[in-house]
Design brief:
It is built from seven helices and six strands, in the order E-H-E-H-E-H-E-H-H-E-E-H-H. Strands 3-2-1-4-5-6 form a six-stranded parallel β-sheet, sandwiched between helices. Strand 2, helix 2 and strand 3 form a beta-alpha-beta unit. Helix 2 packs antiparallel against helix 7. It starts with a strand and ends with a helix.
């Protein structure tokens, strides 16, 4: 059964840090693919700073369309809002019974997993692949049998930094996939 890593996020916008992490996980773990699950509304983030989910999904599609190892996923667009990872995982299992899913997350997310809805269900039923984050310590969560720490490179690029740079008229050419950069420029996003 192929194991698929689920990389959840707002992807506002998707940047090369996301792509580097996805590639690292496919090339250095037992994950065969990474699906970028675009969240329409993260209950822990403010919605007013987000582009529409369809615009963000479009940019993810642009970034991954030429790489068979990667895929965009809009399953949360069809679920009640706010979306919760535990609900999404159940729906993915029902929709794709022949696939095994694992989560990819930063250590900062694991550190706060007890704030997630039905977090114990996730910890008990899914592998979680964790990449290190500066100034984070996931403490007791690191010892759980389904948690696997992966020594992925620490990429200090954030979507917030990319958005702020664009708003201030600075180049982000090397922070974005070329197709994503072109789309953002043509559409005037984040200005």
């Amino acid at each position: 059964m192929p194991k698929i890593g689920l990389f959840f996020g707002s992807f506002n916008p998707i940047h090369i840090g996301h792509l580097i992490m996805a590639e690292y996980f496919v090339e250095n773990t037992d994950l065969k693919e990474v699906w970028f699950v675009v969240s329409p509304n993260n209950p822990l983030k403010k919605k007013e700073s987000l582009l529409s989910e369809h615009q963000r999904l479009y940019m993810v599609n642009l970034a991954v369309e030429d790489d068979a190892r990667f895929r965009s996923c809009d399953i949360e667009f069809h679920l009640p809002i706010p979306s919760y990872t535990s609900h999404t995982l159940v729906h993915l299992q029902e929709k794709y019974p022949g696939k095994e899913f694992a989560l990819i997350m930063g250590e900062d997310n694991l550190q706060n997993i007890d704030k997630w809805k039905n977090y114990q269900f996730i910890l008990d039923n899914f592998s979680i692949y964790v990449y290190p984050r500066p100034n984070c310590d996931a403490g007791k969560w690191k010892e759980l049998p389904n948690v696997k720490f992966v020594p992925a490179p620490q990429i200090e690029i954030s979507a917030t930094m990319v958005r702020n740079s664009i708003a201030n008229g600075k180049s982000v050419k090397y922070f974005l996939h070329p197709k994503v950069e072109k789309c953002i420029d043509e559409m005037g996003f984040y200005k």
